[in-house]
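PROTEIN DESIGN WORKSHEET
SECTION A - STRUCTURE
LENGTH: 253
TOKENS:
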């Protein structure tokens, strides 16, 4: 019944925005940072603040080890990612706002993806001594594989070939300022939608979790696909409990 109701809601909508969280990526084998057995059970998240990364070569070394573990899974898009790409091709989905850093939405074929927490697929120069959680690099950016090549070749750590600044994954660390341009574009997109489809997100990580609320305030409907209850369940038009890789393909079909 829920799949049918969600299908009817999607059929009646023409400007859908998907808001996705870790739950859609764990089905591709990507480790969840916070769940039992996730990366934060092997690495202390308090250690990986932006400022500690800047201040400590030891922290940077452990951060690269963690990043290598994250990308070592060679994950591929799962049926949920593919279903969203199908919705885009049908002209239903106007874009995706994702908390994930894995790039699987783009790999599946979606072309309008806003990554509010950055991407693990690239690294950036953050400058030699950035302060107050604000990167001040020269603009150098390259694929993450480049950084691992520097480490494998014997470098103590990758450094910017242009200015000598620190190189960091293009993801948002604790204590690092969120990219306001990405958040602003995400808010604008959900405000222009008629349905916000939240998938695999606990809706408890802020300020990201406020983004679907902006859609509600602008009059959009809300559908939630998640294994567990969320703080926005009471405002949802449809709730589907289950795995995104099972629910979404059935709905799209």
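SECTION B - SEQUENCE
RESIDUE ASSIGNMENT:
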């Amino acid at each position: 019944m829920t799949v049918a109701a969600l299908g009817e809601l999607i059929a009646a909508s023409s400007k859908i925005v998907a808001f996705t969280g870790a739950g859609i990526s764990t089905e591709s084998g990507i480790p969840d940072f916070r769940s039992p057995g996730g990366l934060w059970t092997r690495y202390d998240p308090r250690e990986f603040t932006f400022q500690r990364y800047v201040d400590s070569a030891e922290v940077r070394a452990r951060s690269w080890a963690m990043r290598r573990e994250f990308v070592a899974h060679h994950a591929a898009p799962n049926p949920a990612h593919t279903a969203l790409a199908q919705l885009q091709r049908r002209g239903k989905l106007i874009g995706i706002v994702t908390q994930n850093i894995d790039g699987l939405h783009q790999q599946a074929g979606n072309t309008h993806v806003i990554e509010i927490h950055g991407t693990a697929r690239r690294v950036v120069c953050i400058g030699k001594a950035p302060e107050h959680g604000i990167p001040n690099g020269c603009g150098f950016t390259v694929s993450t594989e480049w950084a691992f090549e520097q480490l494998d070749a014997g470098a103590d750590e990758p450094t910017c070939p242009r200015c000598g600044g620190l190189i960091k994954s293009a993801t948002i660390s604790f204590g690092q300022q969120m990219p306001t341009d990405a958040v602003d574009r995400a808010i604008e997109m959900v405000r222009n939608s008629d349905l916000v489809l939240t998938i695999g997100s606990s809706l408890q990580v802020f300020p990201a979790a406020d983004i679907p609320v902006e859609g509600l305030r602008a009059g959009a409907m809300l559908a939630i696909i998640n294994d567990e209850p969320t703080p926005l369940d009471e405002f949802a038009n449809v709730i589907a409990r289950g795995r995104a890789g099972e629910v979404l393909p059935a709905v799209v079909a």
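SECTION C - NOTES
The longest strand covers residues 118-127.
The first helix runs from residue 2 to 11.
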